[in-house]
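Deviations from the work plan: none for this task. Representative record:
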Amino acid sequence: MATNNIRYYEEQQCSVQWRSFLAAFSAEFASKGEVKDLRAFMYQLGRTMASGFNVADGSSLQALEACMNRVWAEMNWGWVELVEEADALVVAHHASPLKIAFGADALNWSPALLEGMYAQWFESLGMDKSLRLSQRDGVFEEGQLFVFDLKKQLEEPSYFTRR
Amino acid sequence: MATNNIRYYEEQQCSVQWRSFLAAFSAEFASKGEVKDLRAFMYQLGRTMASGFNVADGSSLQALEACMNRVWAEMNWGWVELVEEADALVVAHHASPLKIAFGADALNWSPALLEGMYAQWFESLGMDKSLRLSQRDGVFEEGQLFVFDLKKQLEEPSYFTRR
Amino acid sequence: MATNNIRYYEEQQCSVQWRSFLAAFSAEFASKGEVKDLRAFMYQLGRTMASGFNVADGSSLQALEACMNRVWAEMNWGWVELVEEADALVVAHHASPLKIAFGADALNWSPALLEGMYAQWFESLGMDKSLRLSQRDGVFEEGQLFVFDLKKQLEEPSYFTRR
Amino acid sequence: MATNNIRYYEEQQCSVQWRSFLAAFSAEFASKGEVKDLRAFMYQLGRTMASGFNVADGSSLQALEACMNRVWAEMNWGWVELVEEADALVVAHHASPLKIAFGADALNWSPALLEGMYAQWFESLGMDKSLRLSQRDGVFEEGQLFVFDLKKQLEEPSYFTRR
């Protein structure tokens, strides 16, 4: 039943006002580029979106998580957990409307929107420049969970521009 | 995680426009009467509400369920399953906004609203007069599920009018 | 055209989730009491609702108006103008969803909800006890505007408790 | 007051869930192309969107208008008037969320979305191939009204592809 409830709520969550536009945008947009270009555009949109919100309290992980969750709740974009691991800060974003808005086929590029938003927020909080945020591969919990890792990108040669 | 997602969605589901009014209504209203009076009022509201919707296709259980679910989806009041059992038709209503709207304390009277709506719909479909709809005791799935049975009320003496 | 747009927006404003419930509530409720009792109940609901919001900045009329308008915008309950007149502070509430929610027939009692909210907010700000808020008679702008006056109630003998 | 109410409602109309995304999309998108390219993309999105809705009753202008207005009301995208003039069918679209969603600066390209939707609907109804829908120049009623004319395009040489 929990699964059926999740499906019900997921469907209802995405605003009827824009659902048709977003589906059309997704179809047109996806037909025009490679996944990496689609991700780059969404990532850039995410950065632009992020600037419009005030996520400024980095006094603790809890405070930062609460700050972000106020933004997400107001937009009805789900909720985030920030978890400290040995070599990374893990950003787990749950219950976003992305799958319903852009479609299941877009799940390999639509979450770059969140990646851009989190990257922008961490930068504006003065994050160490050697850290980089990137989405973990794979679709988790049927597209209800996206995972991002914020960590040192040691393996990358400096002349290589990732995405 | 599924549980946390359910909680997130549940919270978001209830319209911000009326949440404060409904909470105040619930508090005032509950302070003024016995549970059975509160149920009777909600039941009556449910009957009145039901008349405003077109639930007319009783050609099959599936058709009826689909008909009801169109109403529920449009209102964002959850979804229903109709299940035929040996001695009853079971009406299982999932994911309604009642708990968040009227509060967890109101769960012993707020679902009478649904009872009234279903009773009205079954009657308007020409249901056998000897059948009666009544809510099964107990809070299921933390208030995300209400169960109603439509069945013969043999045990009731005819001179007794229940509620 | 402006009039037609207003009508369009007015219709759309009231949440579909609760519109049917509120109409049923209004019909049942209105059938059970006198206008003054209906007003008293709505007024009390308004007081209870008001306590749940933070309207605390009374440093200036502008600040107070802005504070109230943040609450109203978040709930999508319209907007308020506070205007200082010679013998009263005038509270003009525009674009509320009350007419659509409770019906045009309820316009003589539904605005008592707003009266209760404003009264509670002014009291919590430490308003002079000799002042009283009361709704000005009449339906303005086809139920899109309600006017309340906050002023000394000299004409009332002290032993008379109004409402 | 009517004007202030219109502004209030206009602001509230656009879904908070997508407003930030749409503003970012508008800014990024507008920076990447000429107005005619932006219009062409929006027009194409409009055609794709239109296919998802059932606007099939062309038995009379009234019926068609009503059919379209059911779609618009469900999406909360405003309302349309169809007016027959001597040499054209005039499509007047009121109270759309386009200005708030894409911004006032986008008013020279965002309405191509509506143009594409109407064009698609008229075509699917079997409109005479010699007719063409095009938006009338100018911003009317501060972006609350867009006017489209459906008429013979005599002045266009056949080898010229407009837009």
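Chain D touches chain C at residues 1-6, 8-13, 73, 76, 78-79, 94-95, 141, 144-145 (CB under 8 Å).
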